[in-house]
Each structure stands twice: as structure tokens, then as C-alpha cells.
Amino acid sequence: MSITDYINRDIRLRHLRLLVAIDDAGRLTRAARLLHVTQPALSKALAEIERSVGMPLFERTPRGLSPTAAGTTLIRAARAALGEIERAGDELRQPSDVAMRVLNVGMMPTSGWTLGADAIARLRALRPSTTVRVIDGPTGMLLPQLVAGRLDLILGARVRATFPEGVESVPLYDDAMRLIVAPGHPLARQRAPDWTRAIAAPWVLMPTGHPTRTAFDRALRRLGGPAPPVVVEALSADVVVALVDSLGAVALTSGRLAARLEARGAVRSVAPALADALAIPLQVTAFAAPSYEADPDVAALVRCLREVSTAPRPRRESTVRRSTGPRQAGGR
Questions:
Q1: DSSP state for residue 6 in the 8-state scheme
Q2: pLDDT digits over 116-147, tens only?
Q3: DSSP string over 255-311
Q4: Residues 206, 198: Cα–Cα separation, whole Å
């Protein structure tokens, strides 16, 4: 049997639950207890799945079973599929006289922190019967789902001049990128660090190919500055903050997110003049179908996004001496 036949025709829900249980438990004995089956039966079922897929899905390590690359892919899909089925069950269990609308919203990874969560809270107050389901990811990966009708709205960034047919962009605000470090980082104690000191630290940047990363690399070439010697790639705000703290790194992120994290004491925003010299604007935008205003829920969420985007945001900035870009600051 080919893997295509297995995925399209022979895969079963019990296979998905089995893979997720083994991944969660880490050992067959524990997974068998979770599934209320015997270990030999579980081993046999796993072997059958691996034969159908044509490749191993788990490998034995001193700490137990660890998913292979193929296993990771299939487990990720299994979790998503089981989650959708569980949500469908929740909707079906609602009383028949309650009209529940599920609004599928795509969101780039930092937007939940800076805008999305506040807008959703406002929407829930206005339309309590509307449930919001958030699917996060880069804007470019979410747009095809909007065109296909699987998403009702995307909160992302305008990173291209044109968009697919059937997509309307609703500008919200322009956000300047900022550099952040951990509160105890040496750069946090300097009034106006130059580029040489900033670039010597490890950096956390968007993955290669991401539009903001491409703009960053292009800005370095334009300014004649060296590239960071150590780069770790990440998108999730939680992961970025953890890396900034554990690596003593500098991260490039949106100004609104930097302000919110700084207000919480998680990071310090540093060297705004250096960030300004990079000249990387982030055009935060909502994307929807051209007829979105005819949909009361989508139109209400767009209004909430506009209100939140113009609301005052926490700021904690110190007065800094104006600096210059990499060429002058770095002494190149």
C-alpha cells in the first residue's frame, strides 16, 4: 500500500489517537494504559501503521520513544484532526435553540500579544454567541486558506504589493520594528549603543525567507554593516522572549510587542536609532473577503481591531542620544 492510499483511504481515528498517545506518554506501557489496551496490542497496531506508511514513526532512545521526522509530521496532523473533531462535537452538543457562529481567524504569531487578544475580548463582549477559533501562522501561509473559505479573517502584515483575487486588505496601523534584550543585558545599561556592540551579540530573527528577515538582510547590505555572527530563527513571541533571556540575545520585533513586553518587565527596548536606521516598517493589516461587511461577525471583529489598534499602548522609553546606522556606528 502506498502512503497516499493509506492517508486518503485507510487511516482511522484510532490510528491518530494511538500516535498522539504514544507521543504524549513516551513509552508503550504508559500509552497502553492511556488507551486502555494491552502493550502487545499497541505494539502490533503501531507496527501495522508503520508498514502502511512505509517508514518508522518512532525510534527508541534512552528516555523512551521519540518520533522520527515522519512521525512528527503525522503526529502534528493527528493532533490537528482530533482537535477539529473535538470542536465539532462541542458545537453539536450545543442546545438546538442556540445559534452559535464559529469565526475562524488566522493570526501571525505576534498578533495575539499585541492586538488580536484585545480585539477578540471586545468581540466577545459585543457578540457573546460568537466563538473564535484562532489559527496562527505567517500571513503568506494563511492567505490561501482565506481564499479557499477556510478562514473568515486574517490579522497579519502587508508584505506584498498585490494579493490573490478574493482578498481585501484593511489597513490598521504602521508599526516600526524595535530591538529588544533581556533587562539585565549589557546593552540595556547603555544610553545609545553603537552597531558594533549590538551586532556582536547573538540575534533572534525571523526564519530565512520571511519578508521581515529579507528586509533586515537587505537593510544590512544597504547600510554596509556586518551580519550577526550567531542567529537563532524563531517566530513565536514566547520563544523569542525565552531565547533573548537564555542566550543574552538581541531580537528584532514589532514596536507594539516590544512596548507590551517591556511594560511587563520581560524585556528592554534598546537602540531605537539603530532600529530606525534599518527602516523596516510593519504594515499591520486585516485581510477578509471583499464582502466581509455583509457578515455581521467579521465586520464586528474588524471594528474591534480598528478600535484596539488606535487605543493607547503601554510605553516605557528613556531619552536616548540619536545614533546612526551600521556604517557610521560601526566605524566602517
A1: I
A2: 999 999 999 999 888 899 998 888 888 888 88
A3: HHHHHHHHHTTS-EEE-HHHHHHH--EEEEEEEE-TTGGGSHHHHHHHHHHHHHHHS
A4: 17
Asked if 103 and 301 touch (Cβ cutoff 8 Å), the reply is: yes
pLDDT single digits (tens) 62-118: 888 999 988 888 888 888 888 778 777 766 666 555 556 789 999 988 887 888 999
Mean pLDDT of the chain: 84
Sign of the Cα torsion 235, 240, 246, 250 reads positive
Residue 104 near residue 288 (C-beta atoms within 8 A):
no
DSSP helix/strand/coil, 65? strand
Q: Which three cell numbers stand for residue 160?
A: 506584498
Q: How many residues does the chain have?
A: 332
As a whole number of angstroms, the distance between CA 123 and CA 188 comes to 38
Provide the strand spans (E) within 125-261. 130-136, 153-157, 168-181, 203-205, 231-233, 250-254
Residue 167: CB atoms within 10 Å:
16
Of 246, 237, 239, the residue nearest 202 (C-alpha): 246
Task: Quickly count: other Cβ atoms within 10 Å of residue 241's Cβ.
Answer: 22
Q: How many helices (H) and strands (E) does the chain have?
A: 15, 11
Residues linked to residue 288 through DSSP beta bridges, in sequence order: 153, 168
Element (H, E) at 60: strand 58-61
Does the pTM of the predicted model rise above 0.85? no
Extract long-range pairs of 21-28: CB within 8 Å, 24+ residues apart: 22/46, 22/58, 22/65, 23/67, 23/71, 23/75, 26/63, 26/64, 26/65, 26/66, 27/64, 27/65, 28/65
Sign of the dihedral defined by the CA atoms of residues 276, 278, 284, 285, in that order: positive
